[in-house]
Amino acid sequence: GNPLLKVNNLQTHFKSDAGVVKAVDGVSFAVSKGETLGIVGESGSGKSVTSLSIMRLLKDTPGQIAGGEILYDGQDLVKVSESQMREIRGNDIAMIFQEPMTSLNPVFKIGRQLEEAIRLHLKFGKKEARARAIEMLKAVGISRPDTIVDEFPHQLSGGMRQRVMIAMAMACNPKILIADEPTTALDVTIQAQILDLMRNLSKTAETAILLITHDLGVVAEMCDRVVVMYAGRAVEESDVYSIFSNPKHPYTQGLLASIPKMGERVDRLQSIPGNVPIPTRMPEGCKFAPRCPLAMEVCWEKEPAYKEVSTKHSVRCWLHEEVPNDEPELVGSAQ
Ligand code: SF4
Ligand code: MG
C-alpha cells in the first residue's frame, strides 16, 4: 500500500567550529503500515541523527534539517510548526531509546509517569489513565503491574525499564514506533524477550517500526526491509532476504562478512579495515572508497547516485551504475 512515512533525500547539518558537518547527507526510504524497517550502520553513520530529524528532536543539538522531505500523513514534517509536531510526537510517532533511564524521570513513580503520558496524549481522566497504564504494563509482559506502578525507575532492572518505555510509547497507539538500539544495553536473554514483545505489538497493533541498530542479527530477526547507512548516506535498501542473500554494495558485503558464523572463532572474524570518515574530511567521490576493496578511478572522483537497480532494491555504487564518460565528444573529424 501507500507508505506511511516517506523520507526523501534528507539532509541534516551541524554547525561546529570546524565548519558545517553534514551528519545526514542523502537519506531516502519509506515505511508502510505494520512493516518493520531496519536502519543499520556503524556508529557515526548518521542513523540516530536520521531518527532525531524525523522526530524533530534536534533542538538540544547544534543540528538543523537543511534539506529534503519527511512526508507523513499528507504533511512535510520538516515544515510543520512546533505545536503540530508536539501533537504528532507521542500520538502518531513514538520513540524509544537505548537507555530508558535517560527518558524516565528518576523522581517519579512509574505509574505516575505512564499516566501523565497517557493523559497528555489521550485526554483521559485520572482513573481511566490509571487503568490504561496497568493494561499497558500487562501488555508488555509485566506480571505484577499494580505493584510496579508504585515503584521508582531505579528499582527496576534494565529489561523492566525498557518494557515500561515500550508501554509508554505504545499507550497512545502510535502509527510508527522509532526504536534506536532498544536492546543494545540488555543481556542476550532479555534482548530476545524485548524483541519478541516489539514484534508482537507491531503485529497486533499494525504499528510500523523503524528499528535503528548496528546489529545485523537483530535485523535478520525483526525486519521486513533494511536500509544500510554509511557516512550520512543511504547506500543500499532492500528486503531482508535479498540483503542477506545478494548484497550489492561492497560495504553491505563487508558488514555481512563480519558476522561470525556458527562455530567460528571471533579472532578470525573478517571485518572491514578502516573507519567511517570524519565528516569534516569526507573524500570527494564515494565516501566508502578509502575502505572499498573494489574501488575504481571514478569512485575517487564522483559520488555515485542512489538508484533502484532491481525491484525495490536500491544501491549507491558505481559498480551498479553506468560510469560517465567525461571525454568530450569529438565533433566532425579531428584533423
Ligand atoms: Fe566501492 Fe566504488 Fe562502489 Fe564506492 S562506488 S562502494 S568505492 S566500488
Ligand atoms: Mg546511535
TrEMBL record:
Does the entry feature the keyword Nucleotidyltransferase, yes or no? no
Disulfide bond in keyword set: no
Coiled-coil ranges from the UniProt annotation: none
**Topology class, membrane:** Peripheral membrane protein
Predominant localisation class = membrane
Q: Name one Pfam family in it.
A: ABC_tran
Quote the subcellular location field of this record. Cell membrane
Q: Which UniProt keywords apply?
A: ATP-binding, Cell membrane, Membrane, Nucleotide-binding, Transport
GO MF, one example:
ATP binding
What InterPro entries does the database record attribute to this sequence? AAA+_ATPase, ABC_Ni/Peptide_Import, ABC_transporter-like_ATP-bd, ABC_transporter-like_CS, Oligopep_ABC_C, P-loop_NTPase
Domain ABC transporter intervals:
5-256
UniProt xrefs under PANTHER family: DIPEPTIDE TRANSPORT ATP-BINDING PROTEIN DPPD, OLIGOPEPTIDE TRANSPORT ATP-BINDING PROTEIN APPD
Q: Which family does it belong to?
A: Belongs to the ABC transporter superfamily.
Its name, as the record gives it, is ABC transporter ATP-binding protein
Organism, by scientific name, is Sporosarcina soli
